[in-house]
Every structure is written in structure tokens, then in C-alpha cells.
UniProtKB/TrEMBL annotation:
Superkingdom assignment: Bacteria
Any Pfam family hit: TPR_16
SUPFAM superfamilies documented for this protein: TPR-like (SSF48452)
The protein's name: Tetratricopeptide repeat protein
InterPro entries: TPR-like_helical_dom_sf (IPR011990), TPR_rpt (IPR019734)
Length: 283
């Protein structure tokens, strides 16, 4: 804000000077200040894309792109902000506008496919990815390819794409987790357990992988929590998931015991576990 105030004062000073000295080139002066404004705008765009409230960012880029519809950077900013705001159907439309722009890139098409998957339009996402040249090899592209192969139950292709994606990122935790979930849905519980363990080893804060690991173990009749970094609340929630897995497998009494452990472990009232246990004991 102080920076913008200084710019306004400087502009006012230059204008006053221009009124006194006719030889100053006003067009040149405006051109220079436009350059300053572009720099400031670029910084503001970056802030809106990262630090701002997602819906505020959407409003900002909606206004900016309406005023400058030819600027692809503003169209991308709007589409990215809609993704951050979890407005996925709108984001898919916004990314389609980017892909229709004359300056589009292959990465824009990948981002469109990502938005379509988030909006649950898997068929259209697959068509978008198939139209991208095979020479465009990025982590995001192959992660999406793997997810689409999963949705088609093409397990061989999914495994291949997950493996490629792993080689293209320095942060593979989410890939291990997604691949593990794919194995879990196939009923390959031992492989799923291994992949979830790999995900946690890469990112010990990834609670989804911890919960998935417990489900994979429960499906194999392993009803103990593995040694994992976890908070007390996480421990209670994992015991709850393990209890439900035991009940689903037919080991009802073991499941009841795990639910009781979850209720006792949780530092506060654990409504979900209490409700499940009450339903079992009243059945």
C-alpha cells in the first residue's frame, strides 16, 4: 500500500512538472508509468494466485480478464483460482477458454483435463489428454493418465503410468497414495499396504495414506496399528477405521473392541465411533 502511495505521489509530481515544462513528452511519461504498473500488476497477480482468499482471487481475475480478454495470463489466473476455490465445473469452462486461446500450451490442455476430472467428466478428460502430443511428458500429465486408466479398470496401463509419474517428481507421496488406493480397489491388499507405507515414509503428515494403510491391513485381518507418527486424535480415528474394517470382514467382536479403544483414546467426544458402537450393541 505504501509503495502504491509513493507511485501516486510520484505520478502527481510528474504531471505537475509536465504542466510547467511543455517540452516533456507526455506519451513517453505514460509509457514509463505503464511499465511500472505492469510490474506491480504481475506481483499482484502472483499474490492473488497464492496468498489471497480463493474466491477473492476469482473475483479479481474475473474483473481483470473481462477488461483484457485477450490476455491469456489473466485467463489462466481465473481458471487456477476457480480450482483453488473448488469451483470445478466453472474451472473446467475457464480452462477450456484458455485452451481456445491462440497462445495456449500443452500444459494448458493438461490443466483442462485435471479440471474435467475434478468435475467428474472423465470421458472428456480422456479425450483432452489423448489429443496432447506424446512428447509432452510431465508429472501431472502421467498422474492424470494413471487416474483415467484406473477409472477404466485398465490396471496394466495404470501401473505403467504411476511408475512413470514417480520418476518425474521429487514429491512422490501423493502418487504412492493414489497407486495404493488403486491396488486397494482391486483387492490387492498386500501391495496396497506397501505403497501406503511408502507414501507415509515420503510424507508423514499425509493422514489419508495412514487411514488407507489401516484399511489395507484390516482387509488382511491385521488388527493392530503399525508404528506410525500420529497424534492422539489421529490414533483414535485410525482405530475407528480399523474397527470398521474388522466389522466389514465379519470380526464383529474385534471391531467392537477397536471402537471402544477409539472412544477411550480420543481426547474429546468421538461421536462417529460412539454411534457405530451403540448400533452394534443394540443390534
Amino acid at each position: 500500500m505504501r509503495h502504491m502511495t509513493y507511485l501516486s505521489l510520484a505520478a502527481a509530481g510528474v504531471l505537475a512538472l509536465a504542466g510547467c515544462e511543455k517540452e516533456i513528452d507526455v506519451a513517453e511519461m505514460e509509457r514509463k508509468f505503464q511499465g511500472v504498473n505492469v510490474i506491480d500488476e504481475s506481483n499482484l497477480n502472483e499474490v492473488m494466485l497464492t496468498a489471497a482468499d480463493p474466491n477473492e482471487a476469482v473475483s479479481y481475475f474475473q474483473r481483470a480478464s473481462a477488461q483484457n480478454p485477450e490476455r491469456i495470463d489473466l485467463l489462466r489466473g481465473l481458471a487456477s483460482s476457480l480450482i483453488r476455490a473448488k469451483r470445478n465445473s466453472e474451472a473446467a469452462i475457464a480452462w477450456a477458454r484458455v485452451v481456445d486461446h491462440k497462445d495456449k500450451t500443452n500444459q494448458d490442455a493438461v490443466n483442462l483435463a485435471d479440471a474435467l476430472i475434478r468435475a467428474n467428466d472423465w470421458e472428456k478428460a480422456e479425450k483432452v489428454l489423448n489429443a496432447i502430443p506424446p512428447t509432452h511428458e510431465t508429472f501431472k500429465r502421467y498422474r492424470l493418465e494413471a487416474m483415467i486408466a484406473d477409472s477404466n479398470k485398465d490396471w496394466k496401463k495404470a501401473d505403467s503410468f504411476y511408475e512413470i509419474a514417480l520418476g518425474l517428481t521429487t514429491k512422490p507421496a501423493s502418487v504412492f497414495n493414489n497407486w495404493g488406493y488403486s491396488k486397494l480397489t482391486r483387492g490387492d491388499y498386500a501391495d496396497a499396504e506397501r505403497l501406503f507405507s511408502d507414501a507415509i515414509r515420503q510424507d508423514s503428515s499425509l493422514f489419508t495414506a495412514k487411514n488407507n494403510l489401516v484399511l489395507a491391513r484390516g482387509a488382511q485381518g491385521k488388527y493392530t496399528l503399525p508404528p506410525l507418527p500420529m497424534t492422539q486424535i489421529e490414533r483414535a480415528e485410525l482405530l475407528h477405521s480399523l474397527g470398521l474394517a474388522a466389522i466389514k470382514r465379519g470380526d464383529v467382536e474385534i471391531g467392537k473392541g477397536l471402537l471402544r479403544d477409539a472412544i477411550e483414546t480420543h481426547p474429546q467426544h468421538f461421536e462417529a465411533a460412539k454411534t457405530a458402537l451403540d448400533a452394534l450393541e443394540n443390534a
